[in-house]
User: Fold this.
Amino acid sequence: MTSTNSTAHPPRVAAWLVDLFSSDLQREAIQGDLLEEFSEVALRSGFPSARRWYWKQSLKTAFKLGMAGFRTAPGLIVALAAGGLLIQILGFRLWVSIIAALLDNTRQSVIPFYTWHEVKTHLFWYRNAMLAGQILVPLLAACMVAAVAKGMEMICAITLASLRAAMVLVSVFAALSIHDARLPWSMPVSVCAQFMLILMGGVIVREARLSRSKIRSSALRPS
Amino acid sequence: MPRRDYLGEFEHVVMLALLRLGDRAYGVTIRQEISARARREVSIGAVYATLERLGQKAYVTSRLGGATPERGGRSKRFFKVTGKGAAALVRTHSALHDMSEGVALVARYS
Assistant:
């Protein structure tokens, strides 16, 4: 039978998704249970059905574990996410000040005027530094929040990303309603990018903790 | 009136599944028992989220079983109802029984 050959292993991405949301205590048992039932479904209905079953179960499991995690300490999670939002806003302001100071510092006191070439160079560095800040600051803020929220990294990252997206959308729509302008085309892209960067921050910290915990548990297991 | 904890609907179902399964109660068997008896498809995540909540209330305890090859060398986690959990189950059960007494549910709504 082809369904139970040696290559019949469950989808790795789905298994990884479950790992992201399960606690250290539950992880091994949940992955084992999913694998056991996956093998049963593969024997009964074939490998493609088993893969579909595994994806469905993994998505539902990640969602349920995420919701359960949020329900255990909703106040703490929202407070951490709000702290992350503050870090992000203040962090970006600090980044802008540092970049502006670095670019202007030596120039302004010696030569008060720029040549056209210097203006272009200045703008090039300024724009790229802003772009780097827009990438690095949300990522670092999410990493900091996830580092504090031990065991709830992904829930905190999702809450922070949702708060950030909601804040940006509300402020943009408020500004548009006052000035009667059109929504800038880059707006949805920017919101999605920030959302993904914050999630990535949560994933980085969670992955680091997961690998440490896997190394620990494999060291403890009798050979 | 003293505050007493009652079980939620799904907590109630999971606790009954644990009692039915006895020493064989772990994620897969609990899910299959609920599916077979209650004709209700639930995810492993829903079962574990509920078991974790019940564990925090000290209604269930768990222990690790041995690792098996069909599980990729991963251990099973077996669950058991505690005395406190059994008391909460009886309390919930009698509350439901008292509430439904004299109401002809089957005749009226089936």
